[in-house]
Amino acid sequence: MKIFQIVIIIYALSLIIGCNKKTNTTFDSPNQKKKVGLVFDVGGKGDKSFNDAAFKGLVRAKKELGIDFEVIEPGDGSDRESALRKLASKDEIGIVFAVGFIFTDDITAIAKDFPNKKFGCVDYSVASQKEIPVNLTALEFKEDEGSFLVGTIAAMLTKTNTVGFLGGMESALIKKFETGYRQGIEYINPKIKILSSYVSVSSDGFKNPGKGKEIALSEYNSGADIIYHASGLSGVGLFEAAREMKKFAIGVDLDQYNEAPGVILTSMIKLVDEVIFQTIKDYSENKFIGGVKTLGLKEKGVDYIYDNNNKNLIPEDVRKKVEDIKSKIISGDIKIKN
Questions:
Q1: Distances in Å between the alpha carbon of 276 and those of 50, 99, 174?
Q2: How many structural domains compose the chain?
Q3: Are residues 134 and 195 in the same domain?
Q4: Angle, nearest 10°, between helix axes 104-113 and 78-88?
Q5: Cα–Cα distance, 156 to 274 (Å, whole number)
Q6: Which of the residues 26, 231, 235, 280 has an alpha carbon 20 to 30 A from that of 10?
Q7: pLDDT digits over 235-277, tens only?
């Protein structure tokens, strides 16, 4: 009888040990405990634009994928490099994101220094690099395609035949926004006057609402009744000017309607939140792939806003025309020149 009891006890213990081994195997998967690191662009969290879109992707990943994250808001210059290196150096962090093209050189170098970590860079400047490390995914958008669409909206709705553009930093990337916007306007009416100004030649241009407002007021006073911006936090100044002048503004990156209800005609959105989320999801499922990933209208990486908030500002015939143009860009019937 005693021998039988001993056998039963040993069998029960073996089941418990077996269950524990199975549980440990599950929770010891390489990516299960890894955190996500992210370094914000100029303007930081709370810019109501580009950075907030990236943060939205992190929050979604935490909610849906169960990941944890750590973020840093750097200053200028070498702070960006040290912030990336700080996150990459932490064992608990498996993938590090940089938000903004100004990180391109720094994240390329750091990805080479940490070959066992994964990296992602939003708006990576592919043209400036000869080689992209295999552990780095270079995320770029076709901002000119989305900007073309909001340009057509501005052209069809302007009452003064004068519209404006407000750029943050005078750079190749922000010029893509302006180029697409100009071509969209010219596609509808080449006789429309386009006023264009930039806040700065440095990255400070993305965090100067006062200067943004000054430029916007100047453009409105020069006849513009619609101004599109690609200027990060400086765009808040545009919205203030639009409210004061009772004119229209076009938002960027996120749907910015709630920043100035009734004033924001539409927004050219870049789905940065979706790209951040999907890259984290791929990483968590061991499907991460390095290299260049380009997202335009076809890939649903950019678009424009039309919903219950602003549909009373955009007539149905205008909406139908924009959708037709959108289809032609996707099919290649309309080509945007860079």
A1: 12, 10, 21
A2: 2
A3: no
A4: 30
A5: 30
A6: 26
A7: 999 999 999 999 999 999 999 999 999 999 999 999 999 999 9
